[in-house]
UniProtKB/TrEMBL annotation:
It comes from the Bacteria. Residues 19-481 form the Major facilitator superfamily (MFS) profile domain. It holds the Pfam family MFS_1. Residues 482-511 are annotated as: Disordered. It is a multi-pass membrane protein. It comes from Streptomyces achromogenes. This is MFS transporter.
Length: 511
């Protein structure tokens, strides 16, 4: 590790825009990878003879590893260099993608997905940190506008790309190209990143809290494993003991974090933030919202491809109106609606999304197996509009009353709990969806059983949206302004490290 020097001359204009393109590519890879897998799940289950539990771990394992390592990944970058950790992360992500693509059995695929999520936790936090280190404050608005466009593009293109790669069955590889496509992109991004990204560190980086990470991971595993495996094993007693034990582990985490904060001021979870009512409520919203999304997207894919017998491409195209509605409403929400109406926009989003879920539930029962893609468009658009009203302004709303010096820690925690909620939702699929499907169904009963289970799961999602609506009443009425942030950056931009960074000398071209 080289020693940080005094602030050096900023990178050239060409170099920094190349660096931006590289880190945006990495962010796009992560976004696509999250959405691309769901559409291929039925193909993986069919071709690899994966169990229900293994299917859930393929999706939940990534989210769990990502959530557990996200805050630590950001701190490692602050300590050892954002460029260095970015290269480690994207290199590991690419390797894990290869292992996923060449997995010889479901167990290897699950393990590779855990590794992939862990590497994403090293890679993703560096993206916005590198942007902060590379671009002056007056240019970051344009840069974050580009980042928002990338997020929207990833949301739209992920399911479609996954559907096309699965449908085409390239070289007879079935679902494997959804992972292998990361190889050339990842290798190229690693090589270019090594050459064009400027190294930076935080002058006052927080210390690592590995005990905190271990406790969080243990608690989540003790909670998720029984949920995912319980149904297949007949809900044994040890499962209930494990879930109860998870609560004990989380209580131990709180006690340890208090001691850690008093000892060196760098806990994994800054517990003092929860004294801020709006932040505590916002964390609850993010967690519960993640649960709803985790349930819906996996169940939705299984409903269309297994229950209705649709091809991956048809299922992927059916979701396009939803993605477009999310992107459209997100832009309107941040730019026009929230500045004028404040918290009411987010609450309206919860009600609109809940209404879309109920409409979808009615249509699924009314049309049954004869439902068409165009008939799903209306509930999906309504759901997408509601989701778009929530996702874009929610982080600023949660951070509005957080002291400026804690904005980085709070942002990291927001992203972490959303991923944890997503993993929990994926685990609950065994209960709210598969729990309604009998074992060894006759072929003519598969469709009706999946339609019924889909409706059952949607009741849970609708109920969760009602809970979110109530929790949002604790958010600030006008979340657009930061209490102590009357500066040049919004809280959402302060995702990793708000202090000034020290640059190392311009790296020499590789080779």
């Amino acid at each position: 590790m080289t020693t940080p020097t005094a602030l050096s001359a900023p990178p050239s204009d060409r170099t920094r825009w190349l660096a931006l393109a590289i880190v945006m590519t990495a962010a796009f890879m992560d976004l696509v990878d999250v959405t691309i897998v769901n559409i291929a799940i039925p193909s993986i289950q069919r071709n690899e003879h994966a169990s229900v539990g293994q299917i859930q771990w393929i999706t939940a394992g990534y989210a769990l590893a990502f959530a557990a390592g996200l805050i630590t990944g950001g701190r490692l970058g602050d300590i050892h260099g954002r460029k260095r950790l970015f290269l480690v992360g994207i290199g590991g992500f690419t390797l894990a993608s290869a292992l996923c693509g060449f997995a010889t059995n479901p167990e290897m695929l699950v393990a590779s997905r855990f590794l992939q999520g862990g590497m994403a936790a090293l890679m993703v936090p560096q993206v916005l940190s590198i942007v902060h280190a590379t671009f002056p404050a007056h240019e970051r608005g344009k840069v974050f506008g580009l980042f928002g466009a990338i997020v929207g593009l990833g949301a739209v293109s992920g399911p479609l790309l996954g559907a096309l790669l699965t449908e085409w069955n390239l070289f007879g590889l079935e679902w494997r190209p959804i992972f292998l496509i990361n190889l050339p992109v990842g290798v190229l991004a690693w090589l270019l990143g090594r050459r064009f990204i400027t190294e930076s560190r935080a002058p006052k980086a927080l210390k690592l809290d590995l005990v905190g990470v271990a406790l969080v991971t243990l608690g989540l595993l003790m909670l998720l494993y029984p949920l995912i495996r319980g149904r297949e094993l007949g809900w044994p007693l040890w499962g209930y003991v494990s879930m109860a034990g998870a609560l004990v582990v989380f209580a131990g985490l709180v006690a340890y974090e208090r001691r850690k904060a008093a000892r060196d001021g760098s806990p994994l979870v800054e517990l003092s933030l929860f004294r801020v009512k709006s932040f505590a409520a916002g964390i609850a919203v993010q967690t519960v919202f993640g649960v709803a999304l985790g349930i819906f997207f996996l169940v939705w894919t299984l409903y269309m491809q297994v229950g209705l017998g649709w091809s991956p491409l048809r299922a992927g195209l059916t979701g396009v109106p939803f993605s477009l509605a999310v992107s459209t409403a997100a832009g309107l929400s941040v730019q026009q609606l929230v500045p004028r109406f404040g918290r009411k926009v987010l609450q309206a989003g919860a009600l609109v999304m809940g209404a879309g879920v109920l409409l979808y539930l009615w249509e699924a029962g009314h049309y049954g197996l004869a439902i068409a893609s165009w008939q799903m468009a209306l509930p999906l658009v309504v759901m997408g509009l509601g989701m778009g009203l929530i996702v874009a302004p929610l982080t600023d709303a949660v951070l509005s009353e957080v002291p400026r010096e804690h904005a980085g820690s709070a942002s990291g925690l927001i992203n972490t709990v959303q991923q944890m909620g997503n993993a929990l939702g994926l685990g609950l699929v065994a209960v709210v969806f598969y729990g309604q499907i009998g074992d060894r169904l006759a072929p003519d009963r598969v469709g009706p059983a999946f339609v019924h289970a889909f409706q059952h799961a949607l009741w849970y999602v609708a109920g969760i949206m009602g809970v979110i609506f109530l929790l949002m009443s604790a958010l600030p009425k006008r979340p657009a302004q930061h209490v102590e942030g009357a500066g040049e950056e919004t809280p959402a931009q302060a995702v990793e490290a708000t202090p000034a960074v020290e640059r190392e000398p311009e790296p020499q071209p590789a080779g």
